[in-house]
Design goal:
The chain has about 170 residues and is of the alpha/beta class. It has a single domain, classed as Double Stranded RNA Binding Domain, CATH 3.30.160.150. Helices cover about 30% and strands about 35% of the residues. It has 3 helices and 8 strands; from the N terminus they run H-E-E-H-E-E-E-E-E-H-E. The strands form 2 sheets. Strands 2, 3, 4, 5, 6 and 7 form a 6-stranded mixed beta sheet that branches. The chain has a two-stranded antiparallel sheet with strand order 1-8. A hairpin with a 5-residue loop joins strand 4 and strand 5. Helix 2 packs across helix 3. The longest helix is centred in the last third of the chain and has 26 residues. The radius of gyration is 22 Å and the shape is flat.
Length: about 170
């Protein structure tokens, strides 16, 4: 009786995982596979890139070396920060803003045979809303700076999570 119950539980768990769309990491339906990166080189379109320290931090935490001759070359094309009004009080003063950070990036893989596979440019967004009180400008500036730091860390993690290489290629 216990083995029947155990078998039924295993079958139910498997079906539940399959039905919700869960799949093992490294198996993508679009002809790519996740890859563990040992080294990478990052090219920035601007030397004063605000994303640079956060991307460097994530690379360091994941033990990914930054070398110019790496088979993975990451290109940070643009970083754009915009701020828009979300809510106003009865006198027309903005009391809530939304910060939107947009980063465009692309990457290439150099295969073992020397050929280079270029991936299409991708765009990532990070959005945060915060309340604004014109009476507390210093606190608002600190809150905005903290939100921007959080957004850049999120984008840096997402960029590395998106790096995939074509199936059948060797790193």
């Amino acid at each position: 009786m216990k083995s029947i119950r155990r078998t039924f539980l295993l079958l139910f768990t498997t079906l539940a995982c399959i039905s919700c769309g869960w799949q093992l990491r490294g198996t993508e339906a679009n002809g790519t596979q996740a890859v563990q990166i040992d080294s990478i080189y990052v090219h920035y379109s601007r030397q004063s890139s605000e994303l640079r320290p956060y991307l460097n931090e994530v690379l360091k935490l994941r033990n990914i070396a930054q070398t110019k001759d790496s088979p993975v070359q990451l290109y940070i094309a643009t970083e754009q920060l915009s701020k828009r009004s979300m809510a106003m009080n009865e006198t027309g003063i903005t009391i809530q803003y939304q910060l939107i950070l947009q980063v465009d990036f692309g990457y290439t893989f150099q295969q073992a045979d020397g050929s280079v596979t270029k991936q299409e440019q991708q765009t990532l967004y990070s959005r945060r809303a915060y309340d604004f009180d014109p009476q507390q400008i210093m606190a608002e500036n600190q809150e905005q700076a903290a939100l921007l730091e959080e957004m850049r860390k999120e984008i840096a993690r997402q960029i590395l999570a998106r790096i995939k290489m074509p199936k059948g290629s060797d790193e």
